[in-house]
Amino acid sequence: MATERTYHHGDLRRTVLTAALDVIATEGPAALSLRDLARRAGVSHAAPAHHFKDRAGLLTAIATEGYDLLDAALGEAEDLRGLGVHYVQFAVAHPAHFQIMFRPELLCPDAPELLAARERTRSRLRTAVEGYGDDPAIGFMAAWSLAHGFATLLLSRNLDGPLDGRDPEETFRALAGEMFRPTGDPAKG
How many whole angstroms separate alpha carbon 82 and alpha carbon 170? Predict the structure, then answer.
């Protein structure tokens, strides 16, 4: 019977994740209900529990997937500015993931797959800021804050006026250039 269900519904886990991402993107995480997602997938209300213990388990899976997607996006960057641009691009391309990843109160905080995915992503950023500034921890927080803040303001449309038609990626690249110069750079103010 499990074989028939898998065959009939395809990948139920992916179906539920996709439906959840749609709900989060359009209505926000508060509107998310496993019962509603089961209805959308055309399965019993208990079926999603086979893949996600509960709502927090589902949101943790979304956050983990988000960190994996973000890590892959950051891996394409050639320098620190590019890293920030890829961070912003990720947020724009995956707004539902982005919303959930940074809401620890919604997640299973000790889930090993979440902790591992989060650490891989943070490690990539920490490595990228080496050589910028005197304190790598401060550089890490500054770079992350700049990219995350810009992405958040962009997604919430708070930069529509200030951008005034400018390309968000090029604007971010210019901001990062103003803030981050390698240690020993004569142009560093």
Answer: 10
